[in-house]
Amino acid sequence: MEKKDFTPKIIIITLPLREVPSSFPPLGSLSIITALKRAGFKNTKFYNLDLLRPTYEAILANLEREKPDILGISAVVSTGYGFTKKLSLDVKNILPNTTILLGGNMGASAEVVLKKTGVDFICTGEGDKTVVDFVSCWLSAKDKCSYENVDGLAYLDDNSELMITPYAESISAENVYDIDWSILEDLDQLKYFIQSKDTSHQFNNLFSMDPRSFELHRKNKTSMTIVGSKGCVAKCSFCHRWDTGIRYIPVQVLMKRIDYFIEKYNLGFIDFGDENFGSDKKWLDEFLKQIKTRDLIWGVHGMRARSASSELMEKMKDAGCCRVTYGFESGSQAMLDVMDKVTSVKQNYDALRWTVENKLQTSLQLLLGMPGENPKTVGETAKFASFFAGLSPSIDPNDASINFAQALPGTPLYEFARRKGFIGPTLEDEEKYLLEISDRDARDGETNINFTDYPKLLLENWHFEIQLKTRNAYIQKWGIKSYQNMVSKSFNNSAQMNSIAYSSNADSNNRDSGNFAYPLRAKEELAGESEIIPSIWWFIKKKIPGLIPMIYPTLFWRMRCISILFVLPWSAQKYGVKVAINMCIEYMRWKILSFTPSKKKTVFNSISLRKTILRNLIPKIPTDNPVMAIIRKGR
Question: pLDDT band for position 506 (50/70/90)?
Answer without folding.
Answer: very low
